[in-house]
Design a protein that fits this description.
Blueprint: H1 12-30, H2 34-57, E1 70-71, E2 74-75, H3 76-97
Antiparallel strand pairs: 1-2
Helix pairs in contact: 1-3, 2-3
């Protein structure tokens, strides 16, 4: 059985992005990799934006538990997702393998 995470209603997706974003920020700060993550996120963002815009347009995702705020044609939460995922990956990588 999958747990019901919809307790925050339309703010559920935003809450999860903020939670995992905070985890990523802590890991990146601890590993002294905030700048490295920032550069990587900026480099990946245009690709992720185009990919996200396309997949939403063709109906790959139907995001129900979101705020309803769209920025540049995609949900606010998706913009956060495009920063959180690479930030978390780099934070974990640098924590494990950093100097």
């Amino acid at each position: 059985m999958v747990p019901d995470i919809s307790v925050c209603g339309r703010y559920t997706y935003l809450a999860t992005e903020l939670f995992w974003g905070a985890v990523a920020a802590v890991l990146l700060r601890r590993a002294n990799a905030l700048r490295k993550a920032g550069v990587t996120i900026l480099a990946l963002y245009p690709i992720a934006y185009c990919w996200d815009r396309y997949t939403l347009a063709v109906g790959v995702f139907d995001i129900k538990l979101r705020t309803g705020i769209d920025i540049a044609g995609i949900p606010l939460e998706e913009h956060l997702f495009m920063a959180v995922v690479p930030g978390l990956v780099i934070g974990i990588h640098e924590t494990i393998f950093g100097e």
